[in-house]
């Protein structure tokens, strides 16, 4: 490597940034925008302000202190989900304080950022920095330097009976970023109760705003682009890693800088491993390949699964099992009734339909079993900024919630692993599929594998 090491570069960044703080130009559509500016989120500042106000109310006479992680020495920075949810800021080491009325801070909230920019950008990104321009960009006042945070907040922490932080808390926090935060708070106020802010934010994040739904749709579109690339690249002799490469290329073409989770490309016996890590295994004709992927756009993830036959055509037995899985997905999506249905209801429905199917398969012990025996996971989970998003699994489905519906059957003795997954938003009318345009029926899958990329 030519030039300073990443660690030395970080020290240089801080030294230079303390002297040179860039101006932030906003407003014009073609104007420069520093990395981390909330306008890149596609969400209005009013949405972030409303979330902070709701959290402030929920915290009562406690304070909230959320400290994000550093950029690290390599890889793309990804903000902590709860901190992004409240600010839209995607900058390393950002911190947010929200305090109750009559607090010594004399403000509802304060944002803390490390200054960056100027000559320091020779070795790294120029992120959003403290000052009046950051106040305008975020709608938070004040925005101060990160290294002033503990001194400024000491009076607030001393007064607070409770402090909500980014978890974990308790014994699980030892040797973690949260543990260091807890140590600093206890040094200032040993009597303060320290709690995970997730208990307050998780219910808020269940319902998505219009802008959040737009981001999830964009993530779904990028995920579909990756899935189509996978379909066209699956053939005898292709490796799982080669297929993964086509998936990632599709993500990037659609503007997804990151993945919501590591790509799952499982062929042959690996199709029955739920969270298989893509390998150098070469595929063979007659096998199945489970492809479970999710692109991330504007910090929101897609999550789509399709199952493909190596060689381009399902065997009669594979087709039987595939059609059953597809029928269960369709029935579950049609069973969503806003204000009534829960994820548990959908899971129970799926298990009943698998159990009532006339199809049978042999378990590991050789006994013939009903198909629900081979349904090894839940049919659904919440989707949002995290692919397995926060929120109670017992919550009743309400408009604005986003979930996956992903039935699957896994029969190791037959080398059959089949999963079909799509993303759905709950509306007043039921479940709206957020990943349309990608075939899920067996004939459509076979046709997609024969198609050529047209864009």
The number of domains: 2
Largest sheet: 6 strands, mixed
**Level-1 CATH class name of the largest domain:** Alpha Beta
The shape is elongated
> How many separate helices?
12
**What is the C-alpha radius of gyration, as a whole number of Å?**
25 Å
Number of strands: 19
Spatial sequence of strands, sheet with the most strands? 4-3-2-1-5-6
CATH topology of the largest domain: Creatine Amidinohydrolase
Beta-sheet strand percentage? 15-25%
The helicity comes to 25-40%
Helix-strand makeup class: alpha+beta
CATH homologous group name of the largest domain: Creatinase/methionine aminopeptidase superfamily
**N-to-C span:** 37 Å
CATH architecture verdict of the largest domain? Alpha-Beta Complex
Q: Which stretches are low in confidence, meaning pLDDT under 50 for 5 or more residues running?
A: 1-32
Query: What's the mean pLDDT score?
Result: 90
Give an overview in words.
With 455 residues, this protein is an alpha+beta fold. It has helices at 6-17, 45-59, 81-87, 132-138, 149-159, 177-188, 198-205, 210-233, 240-253, 316-334, 343-356, 442-450, and strands at 63-67, 95-98, 109-113, 143-145, 162-165, 193-196, 258-259, 264-267, 288-293, 295-297, 300-301, 304-309, 360-362, 368-370, 402-405, 408-411, 416-419, 422-427, 430-433. Strands 4-3-2-1-5-6 form a 6-stranded mixed beta sheet, with helices on both faces. It has a 3-stranded antiparallel beta sheet with strand order 7-10-11. The longest helix is centred in the middle third of the chain and has 24 residues, at 210-233. The protein is elongated and about 70 Å long.
